[in-house]
Structures are given as structure tokens and as C-alpha cells.
Design the sequence.
């Protein structure tokens, strides 16, 4: 069995890092998921004047300070993309493709950069719309399936689906060479809306319409509600209380993913509170 | 272990039951289904005297899966006699499932 961490922190922006250093100070067994660049938004900021103590600093400079800080505390970053987090009751299962990590608590600090749902997508979820083509493909044996692919990996899933379905359409949302089975029809047009009655009937595109039984949306980044099934979302943000608690026991959130204003020091502050809450939850476990 | 029902035994097991029946539609290749299995097992232990828990492998039982229009798995359906009371698509935490099932008791 894999090691069960006390706290898994997802995200290396200011919220995730502040949560991590505080959890580390409190001597918890932690794991931090993210990447070495920490945060794309941070690197891009030309000048920051509202982070107390760092007047007239560039985003890049602030990022270097953050990196130095976690290095000095012996905190490493695990560069893996979490696909799903399942609340199993007394622990969380964090899925990375075929691999799984376990943690007693989680802190979501994923920021706010994820693609918006298509019109009709949420309404028809489970009624023809799905996010896991390999899971649901056998249910579409002999039927028409449309895949909206945002990355290279979606091509592989499309090929798998095309072996079972009657007809497969692929709508690429990126440019490149597509390695697809010959029976897959590629349609280059932007999807606008999913329509149907009690289940999906068609996908409306900018330049076309596809009559289809099923639609799979295969994106790079998923919304927090998809990442953590059962998580309560309010107006596009994770719903939290003053202690950064979500509706799921042991799951906390901090930073832009919880709501506006989108500011570095607000995120850091929330990360601190989330870590404190996670620590107190662990101590009462 | 939660009882497996199939195309043949489904009607007797579900409509023939006096209690409400929670059906977990799953398949062996589906990751989220695997995660849901222990959650359903725990619920079955906790609520087993009031609720009947069964599961259907959609791969082996296409008739029932298409009859109830299962388009994604996992899907958990709450039945009372042969009426669908609630359909939950995708993995859900235990507390959520319990709350929803309790609404139908």
C-alpha cells in the first residue's frame, strides 16, 4: 500500500505554497503537487506593488523568492497532474493516470484557469455527455459518438472509442497532426452548444451540426467540481467558509479557486488559514 | 460483498423487494467505479437493514443498462419497486450518497 500523507496540496501558486510552508512548520507529512515555474500568472506579472514587504518587485523576482523559501525549508514539488480526487471517507485518493496517492486531507489551490463548460454540457452530463471516453465507450456500442479533444491524449481515446462505436467524430481544439484511425471523421469547427431533450441529440458547431448519441469532452484542465466529485461550487468558485473548509470533510481550498479578488497576498493568506484548518482537522481525527 | 444482479434476475431483485434498492452500475475497466466500490460496501454495512444494495456489471448486462439508459458509469440509481427515484452519475463521496439515499427512506 502506498504511503498516506497527512496533507496533499494541489497547486504551487502563492496559496498552495503558503499552505505548504505552514503545514511543514506544524510538522505534518505533506506532498505538494505543481511545477517548478510555480505559477504562470506570477511569472507574467510585470510589476507588483500590493504584496506587503515587496515594493516594486517583478513577478519573476517574487517567484524566485518563493522558490528560495520552499527550498530552504526542504520542500520539494511533485510535478504530476492530478486527474481526479476521490473522497473515500477517512482519506482522499488522488489519481495520476494509473498511479494513486493517498492523503488524509487535501488543500485545493488550483487557481482559476480552466476552460468554461460548453452550453448544455452540465445539463446533459450522464445523459450523453461524459468526461471519460474509455470508461463509457462500451455503452455506445454501434452508436454515434463525438469527441471534443483538447490535447494529444484525446486522440488515443478517440481511436479506442472508434473500435466500438458505429460512427466517431473528432473535433480537435488544437492544431497539429492527428493520429487517428481511418474511420474517424475529423471536423474542424468550434463547438457552441449541446442540445437534446432528455438526452443528447446533437452538437451544434460554428459551421455544422452533428447528430450524435454521445459527446465526450476531453480537456487538459478540469474545473474543481470535476476534479473532486461531490465538491460544492458556487458561481464558478469552490464554496468555502471562513476557515477555508469546503462541503467535503477534510477538503480545504485557498486562492483564486475560492473566489475574487484574484490577488497574490489574498491567496497566500487563504493558504495559511487552510493549512491551519487542515492541521486542526488532523489533530482531531 | 454487494450482490451482483443481471439481466435475468434484475426484475425479481428490484421490483420484488419491499425496501428501496440502490443499484450501482459499474464495469471492471472503469477507474471511478473501482473507487466507488468500497464506498458502496461501507454504505451497505451502515444502511443494510433499511436499504438493499446491488450492483450491475454493464458489460455483461446490456439489456438492463440500455433499459435504464445508463450513459456513463459509475451511475447509482435508487429504485422503489420498479420506479426510478434518483439517478446519480459519477463518483460521489459517501456522505452525499447517504444523504440522497436517506431522502427515499
Sequence:
Amino acid at each position: 500500500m502506498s504511503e498516506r500523507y497527512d496533507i496533499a496540496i494541489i497547486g504551487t501558486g502563492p496559496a498552495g505554497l503558503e499552505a505548504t510552508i505552514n503545514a511543514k512548520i506544524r510538522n505534518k507529512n505533506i506532498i505538494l503537487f505543481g511545477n517548478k515555474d510555480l505559477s504562470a500568472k506570477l511569472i507574467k506579472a510585470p510589476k507588483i506593488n500590493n504584496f506587503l514587504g515587496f515594493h516594486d518587485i517583478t513577478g519573476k523576482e517574487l517567484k524566485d523568492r518563493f522558490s528560495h523559501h520552499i527550498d530552504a525549508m526542504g520542500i520539494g514539488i511533485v510535478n504530476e497532474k492530478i486527474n481526479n480526487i476521490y473522497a473515500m471517507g477517512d482519506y482522499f485518493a488522488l489519481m495520476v493516470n494509473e498511479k494513486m496517492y493517498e492523503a488524509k486531507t487535501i488543500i485545493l489551490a488550483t487557481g482559476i484557469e480552466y476552460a468554461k463548460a460548453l452550453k448544455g454540457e452540465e445539463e446533459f452530463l450522464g445523459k450523453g455527455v461524459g468526461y471519460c471516453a474509455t470508461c463509457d465507450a462500451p455503452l455506445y456500442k454501434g452508436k454515434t459518438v463525438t469527441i471534443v479533444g483538447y490535447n494529444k491524449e484525446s486522440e488515443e481515446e478517440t481511436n479506442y472509442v472508434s473500435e466500438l462505436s458505429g460512427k466517431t467524430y473528432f473535433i480537435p481544439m488544437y492544431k497539429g497532426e492527428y493520429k487517428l484511425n481511418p474511420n474517424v471523421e475529423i471536423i474542424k469547427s468550434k463547438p457552441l452548444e449541446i442540445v437534446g431533450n432528455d438526452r443528447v441529440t446533437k452538437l451544434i458547431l460554428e459551421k455544422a451540426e452533428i447528430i450524435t448519441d454521445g459527446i465526450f469532452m476531453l480537456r487538459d484542465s478540469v474545473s474543481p467540481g470535476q476534479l473532486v466529485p461531490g465538491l460544492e461550487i458556487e458561481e464558478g468558485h469552490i464554496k468555502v467558509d471562513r476557515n477555508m473548509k469546503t462541503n467535503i470533510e477534510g477538503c480545504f481550498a485557498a486562492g483564486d479557486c475560492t473566489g475574487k479578488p484574484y490577488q497574490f497576498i489574498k491567496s497566500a493568506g487563504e493558504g495559511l488559514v487552510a493549512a491551519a484548518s487542515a492541521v486542526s482537522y488532523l489533530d482531531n481525527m | 460483498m454487494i450482490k451482483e444482479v443481471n439481466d435475468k434476475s434484475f426484475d425479481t431483485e428490484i421490483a420484488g423487494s419491499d425496501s428501496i434498492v440502490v443499484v450501482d452500475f459499474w464495469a471492471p475497466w472503469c477507474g471511478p467505479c473501482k473507487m466507488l466500490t468500497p464506498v458502496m460496501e461501507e454504505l451497505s454495512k451502515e444502511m443494510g437493514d433499511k436499504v438493499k444494495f446491488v450492483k450491475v456489471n454493464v458489460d455483461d448486462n446490456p439489456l438492463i443498462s440500455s433499459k435504464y439508459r445508463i450513459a456513463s458509469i459509475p451511475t447509482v440509481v435508487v429504485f422503489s419497486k420498479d420506479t426510478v427515484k434518483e439517478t446519480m452519475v459519477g463518483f460521489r463521496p459517501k456522505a452525499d450518497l447517504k444523504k440522497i439515499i436517506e431522502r427515499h427512506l
